[in-house]
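hiii so um. not sure if this is the right channel but i have a protein structure encoded as C-alpha cells and i wanna go backwards to a sequence. like what aa goes where. can anyone help
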C-alpha cells in the first residue's frame, strides 16, 4: 500500500491531472475535495499521509484550510499547489506549516519530488 493522498482543488482538471501523474507511483489518491470546507471536514475521516492544497478556491481558501487542518492535526503534511508562486505566498504557506509549495503548471517529476520531500521532514 502506498502513501495516501488527498487532493484539494476546485478544478476537476487539476484533480484528474494529479491522479494521472501519480498512476503507478507510491502515491494512492484516497480522496478529492473541491473546497477548503470539505477538506477540513474530510481530513480526519480519510487520514491521508499527504494533502495537495490549492490556494484560490471559493469559500475558505487553501491557506486558511491548511491552517485549520494543521491546528487540529499538527502532524498533517500539506503541499500547497498554486499559480500564485510569489515569495509572499510561499512564505505564508511555510509560516502556517506547509511542507512544500508547487507552482502550476507542474510536471510529473516536480509533483513526485515535492511529495517525496514533504514526507521526509
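sure thing!! here u go:
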Amino acid at each position: 500500500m502506498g502513501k495516501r493522498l488527498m487532493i484539494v482543488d476546485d478544478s476537476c482538471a487539476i484533480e484528474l491531472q494529479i491522479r494521472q501523474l501519480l498512476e503507478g507511483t507510491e502515491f494512492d489518491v484516497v480522496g478529492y475535495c473541491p473546497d477548503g470546507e470539505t477538506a477540513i471536514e474530510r481530513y480526519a475521516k480519510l487520514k491521508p499521509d499527504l494533502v495537495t492544497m490549492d490556494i484560490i478556491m471559493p469559500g475558505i481558501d487553501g491557506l486558511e484550510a491548511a491552517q485549520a487542518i494543521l491546528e487540529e492535526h499538527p502532524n498533517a503534511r500539506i503541499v500547497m499547489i498554486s499559480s500564485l508562486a510569489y515569495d509572499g505566498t510561499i512564505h505564508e504557506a511555510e509560516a502556517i506549516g506547509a511542507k512544500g509549495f508547487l507552482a502550476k503548471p507542474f510536471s510529473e517529476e516536480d509533483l513526485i519530488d515535492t511529495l517525496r520531500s514533504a514526507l521526509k521532514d
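oh and Residues 81 and 102 are 5 Å apart (CA to CA).
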